[in-house]
Amino acid sequence: MLGNQRYASIDIGTNTLRLLIAEADEGGRLKPLIYKRAITRLGGSYTEDRGIDPGSAERTLKVLEDFAKVISGNGVCRVLAFATSIVRRAKNRGFFLEAVRERTGIGITVISGVEEARLSLLGVLSVIDDSGGDKLVIDIGGGSTEFIFTKDTGIAGEWSMEMGVVHLSEKYLKGDPPKRSELDSLEHDIKRVIKGLKVQMNTGGVDPLDYCGSRGAVFVGTAGTITTLAALDQNLEVYDRSRINNYTLTVKRVREIYGYLCSLTLKEREEVLTLEKGREDLIIPGTAITLLVMDEFGFDELKVSDAGLLEGIIIREFNNEKKTA
Prior knowledge:
Blueprint: E1 5-12, E2 16-24, E3 30-39, H1 54-72, E4 78-83, H2 85-89, H3 93-104, E5 108-110, H4 113-125, E6 135-140, E7 145-151, E8 154-161, H5 165-172, H6 180-203, E9 218-222, H7 224-233, H8 241-244, E10 248-250, H9 251-263, H10 266-270, H11 283-297, E11 301-305, H12 309-324
Parallel strand pairs: 1-4, 4-5, 6-9, 9-11
Antiparallel strand pairs: 1-2, 2-3, 6-7, 7-8, 10-11
């Protein structure tokens, strides 16, 4: 019997480091026990020539050491640690992976954008009320954004686009608050990537028109930008996952929140209670991506999922173990 196995999953992202310890029952349903997150900005000051910045790596390693201590005291049977965009891109990723193993004993698996998208979808579908139908699921990260297109409960196509909030923020947002010209350049780049996505969809046999709001498709969002927008819209002073999952954001409210955030200085955004520290600059490009995807695909609303890659990692592992049991 595989019931009530306790797993730990770690998501090493370009901006955020996350840990989930959860039990899986015999049906594969997850009971979250411990959830921790920290913004370490591993992709900060990244360059293609140099790769991961040593200071950014050190910030991340210290948090991973703390995660390892939490894991060691909680009876975990399996530790599943995955790295995404920034680590798979970095020419010097070997030094980072080895440092993690030496200082924590944790082995890191570097996954492709496609695998990241599929695992994120597993997590999203585990909490969304209606798991069937045609959906566009978006996972906005620090270094890339994953787009998953579903047909009923299967995947019609998935694409990982090099469009992440850390790189967009560092490239375009210099003013405080950002200048209109900076926002124009930011939005132009995002639109360019979305148009490129549609070209890839057509090439891959997926019609973008099938995933428009007018055709009955549902837009689902996961990860920090989306959940922060849901918290802002509800004026949550304390983050509550139960009030985030399946929350509906309208395009009107996303547009209003975007305008409001762009009008604030960095210090003023820091004082918005529902924004976790370290996201005050990144929330602008993240909201721009959300809004422009809604505009380009014709969605009037967005359903929010707090679950994603962390949950998907555990669900897949449990399912694989169940097959071989």
